[in-house]
Amino acid sequence: MSVLGPRSIMTSEQGFGVRIERDAPTKLHPFRQFFRGFEDVEAVRSLFGRATERVLQNLRVEFFSARFGYMGTSDVDGHLLISTHHLKDSDLRTVYLDVVHELCHVKQFRKHQPLFYPKLSYVDAPSEIEAYRFTADEGRRIGMTDKELREYLKVEWITPQEHRRLCRRCGVAARGRPAKAHRRRLRK
User: Fold this and answer.
1) Is a pLDDT exceeding 70 seen at residue 22?
2) Residue 143, by phi and psi: left (phi above 0), alpha (psi -120 to 50) or beta?
3) Which residue of 6, 54, 102, 165 has the fewest CB atoms within a 10 Å radius of its CB?
4) Among 101, 182, 169, 110, which residue's Cα sits nearest to residue 138?
5) Tell me, what's the pLDDT at 45?
6) CA–CA distance from 128 to each of 114, 132, 174 (Å)?
7) Of 6-10, 44-48, 84-88, 165-169, which gets the smallest average pLDDT?
8) Cα–Cα distance for residue pair 171/166, rounded to 1 Å
9) pLDDT for the residue numbered 104
10) Where are the alpha helices (DSSP H) in the chain?
C-alpha cells in the first residue's frame, strides 16, 4: 500500500535500477501541542494583537534531530523549525526567548517582510535586529540582566565585533568579554 499522495512524483534513472520519491511529505505539528500559554504572553500579544489566538492556532512546528541547529522560521510558509536537541537540552529561559524571537519572525513573514538578507551580515539584517531587540525587551521583562542578555546574544556564527554591534542595537551594555556561544546556526 502506498502512502504517497496523488501529486507524488516518482522518478527513476536508467541504469540505477531504483525509483526515488521526490516529493516527500513533511510532518508538521500544531504549535500549541508543544508550546502552551504563549497566547497569554503580553509580548506575543503585542506581535499579533487580536489575531494572536488564530495565529498560534494555525502555526505549525517541524522538529528535526540534527545537533547543529536550534530554531528557525521557514521563509516558504512561516512555520517554525526546531531542533529536538535544543528543545530538550537547552535551559528553559533560552528556549522561551528563542520561541519569542521566532514568533517575531513569524510576524515579519506574515507582513511579507524578508527574513533573510544574504548580502548583509547576520547582525545587520533588519529582520534579526528587530527580532533580537524584541527578544531583549522580553528578556528584561522576565528579569534578565545585561550580562545575561549579552550571553544570550552570543551565538557561534558571529564575531566578537558583531556581538558588540548586536548588543548595542538591542540596548544591551556590551561590557566584558562575551560568553562562549551556546547555540549553533541552523543550516539550510
Assistant:
1) yes
2) left
3) 6
4) 101
5) 98
6) 10, 6, 18
7) 6-10
8) 9
9) 98
10) 31-34, 42-48, 52-58, 84-89, 92-110, 126-141, 146-153, 160-169
- The residue assigned the cell 521557514 is 74
Distance CA 126, CA 86 (A): 25
Segments making up each domain of the chain, as ranges: 25-169
Q: Pick from 100, 102, 63: which is nearest to 83 by CA?
A: 63
| Rounded Cα gap, residues 179 and 94, in angstroms | 14
User: Do 128 and 122 form a contact (C-beta atoms < 8 A)?
Assistant: yes
C-alpha cell at 65: 534531530
Q: Is the pLDDT of residue 180 over 60?
A: no
Given a contact cutoff of 8 angstroms between Cβ atoms, the answer to whether 143 and 183 are in contact is: no
Of residues 179 and 14, more confidently modeled = 14
